Amino acid sequence: MDFSLSKKEQLFLQMIREFAVNEVKPLAAEVDEQEKFPIETVKKLGKLGVMGIPIPVQYGGQGGTNQMYSMAVEELSRVCATTGVIVSAHTSLCMAPILEHGTEEQKMKYLPKLASGEWIGAFGLTEPNAGTDAAMQQTTAVDAGDKWIINGSKIFITNASEASVFIVMAMTDKSKGTKGISAFIVEKGFKGFSIGKKEMKMGIRGSATCELIFENCEVPKENLLGELGKGFKIAMMTLDGGRIGIASQALGIAQGAMDETVKYTKERKQFGKAIAKFQNTQFQMADLETKVQAARLLVRSASYKKDMHIPYSADAAMAKLFAAETAMEVTTKAVQFHGGYGYTREYPVERMMRDAKITEIYEGTSEVQRMVIAAKLFA
Amino acid sequence: MKIVVCIKQVPDTTEIKINPVTGTLIRDGVPSIMNPDDKGGLEVALQLKDQFGAHVTVITMGPPQAEAILREAMAMGADRAILLTDRKFAGADTLATSNALAGALRVIEHDLVITGRQAIDGDTAQVGPQIAEHLHTPMISYVAGVEFDGKDKLTVKKEDEDGYQILEVHTPALLTVLASAFKPRYMTVKGILDAYDEKEIEIWNVDKIDVDEAKLGLNGSPTRVKKSFTKPQKVAGEVFDVTPEEAVDLIVAKLKEKFII
């Protein structure tokens, strides 16, 4: 068993770290405060190949591993969780289902422009009345002979206002329950498709989270993704992969808060010495460091299994559950270590704490992760 | 246009510690990086590749682990990488190093050689100019700007302490480059994957290069290290809020206390 990174992965880590520190970190506070989608950063990431890491070369991607993709999301989120989730949703929720379930024509049409970052991708499953109970889809797709007609709406869609391509779930046969849901590839310009309200969020404020509105939206016949009635299965498989991305994001947020807290507690002096010299600081930080490292091993293990085509659904759920709860704990304690300063926007830990919370909620709440893990345990 | 960029792996620290007994660098635990000025030089070469389709070779002399910076250079866009490694190179000072690199350059077809101004570990700024001497090639040091006419003429901005000169030079030539003037590009994901999966590093020993072996390694190095030491750490200064008259007395007293006057 080898826990070390290959030289190739080490070099990749060096590259993405340099980029994150030089290009992403300086914008993080502005992205948060102004709810600004970092489009310039996304373009730069596209040029470097980061928007298409695990996509094969023949579809315009880099032919890299899910492990590298996960490391990229981690390192970007370490300095800016908004940037991390943009890459995660784009890669795991839009490109991955096209790659795994698309026809050759669909892959050739959509993947090269997505993998280069020219197009940004998004994914629409959640509805006002279908959150964790995703089977309660009310959006419908009706066969109109030469096209599909979609009606309904989706909410909380990451990347929505910036995306060109959307993977959308809609009910094609209500009588069949989850087996009546199908997946579609929807383009920004399709007739009857529009972007609705943009959410004002607690954290990841630059990530452009909006409503999708379908009013007799016309989708070409060939844009059905996968087989008719397989949409729910596709969505669940997609979320398994997405959880690796969000686990990586949570891990990055936790690591970023550790970085800041180590730095601050070494500098901050009270009672005549750096607060890092107090045993309370040392013991608490040792516990947090242990949890961050444990989260990292879970994330790496889930990514490894995905790369090796070993079933990884429960692994991804465990990685996301543990990394998200670790991110929340680490960032909360990071604010505490920073004291009054930590509660201000002068230090980034305040933002990191707000950013961390969403990782316990989206792409399956922590409760959903426990359901997934338990389902395997008691199978 | 064929360009060769000479690069060096150096410890990534401004606080290099030295073993007080042996007087040698303690490299354990210090990460190694591509020397910043050399990376600036590679950026110049890659810009010429972007504009004129130049072919870029990187070369380094060092132990086998110096391979890491050659992979990094290829991940940034270099076409070919050569590692000069041989026990006979060991213990080289700047002269022996420049002899080895010049020996390699004699057998690599090139129009332009680029080196960094100096390495952050040795800070000598000697190797680039010495290579030019060995090769009888015109050389411009402290380069902060390069324009190429697409044929054989380079217009070069050479920085001085208090200004700059604009110089023209015809290839073949050698430039030593300042990192501060050329922000190096990032590696690309594809570059990294190709650097390991598609490209090979050529490993060259003494037999592959055109040089007098007596001029290499410790035997070819006239420099002898008399003494190495770590600079004493500066302690925090004291601040006195006093009148100018009192300050004079205070300063004199302090200087006497330290036996400076």
Brief digest:
The complex is a heterodimer of chains A (379) and B (261). By secondary structure, chain A is α+β, with helices and mostly antiparallel strands.
Describe the structure in your own words.
- Chain A is of the alpha+beta class and 379 residues long.
- Chain A contains eleven helices and ten strands.
- Chain A has helices at residues 7-24, 28-33, 39-48, 66-79, 81-101, 104-115, 231-267, 279-307, 313-342, 349-358, 366-377, and strands at 121-124, 140-143, 147-157, 165-171, 181-187, 193-198, 210-220, 224-225, 269-270, 273-274.
- Chain A has a four-stranded mixed sheet with strand order 1-4-5-8. Chain A has a four-stranded antiparallel sheet with strand order 2-3-7-6, with no helix packed on it. A two-stranded antiparallel sheet of chain A has the order 9-10.
- In chain A, a hairpin with a 2-residue loop joins β9 (269-270) and β10.
- The longest helix of chain A is centred in the middle third of the chain and has 37 residues, at 231-267.
- Chain B has 261 residues and is of the alpha/beta class.
- Chain B has helices at residues 36-52, 67-76, 94-105, 127-135, 189-197, 244-257, and strands spanning 2-6, 9-11, 32-34, 55-61, 80-84, 112-116, 139-148, 153-159, 164-170, 173-177, 201-204.
- Chain B has a nine-stranded mixed sheet, sandwiched between helices. In chain B, strands 2-3 form a two-stranded antiparallel ribbon.
- In chain B, α2 crosses α5 (189-197).
- Chain B is globular, with a radius of gyration of 22 Å.
- The model of chain B has no long low-confidence stretch (mean pLDDT 92).
How is the quaternary structure best described? Answer: heterodimer
Cα gyration radius of chain A (Å): 21 Å
**What portion of residues of chain B is helical?**
25-40%
What's the tally of helices of chain B? 6
Biggest protein-protein contact in the assembly: A-B, 17 and 14 residues
N-to-C CA distance of chain A: 28 Å
Secondary-structure element sequence of chain B?
EEEHEHEHEHEEEEHEH
The biggest beta sheet of chain B, please? 9 strands, mixed
Average pLDDT level of chain B:
92
The low-confidence runs of chain B, each spanning 5 or more residues with pLDDT under 50, are none
Q: How widely separated are the two ends of chain B?
A: 61 Å
- What is the radius of gyration of chain B computed over CA atoms, rounded to a whole number of angstroms? 22 Å
The total strand number of chain A stands at 10
Q: Specify the structural class of chain A.
A: alpha+beta
What would the average pLDDT of chain A be, to the nearest integer?
97
Q: Compute the number of helices of chain A.
A: 11
Order of helices and strands of chain A: HHHHHHEEEEEEEEHEEHHHH
Class per helix and strand makeup of chain B = alpha/beta
Global shape of chain B: globular
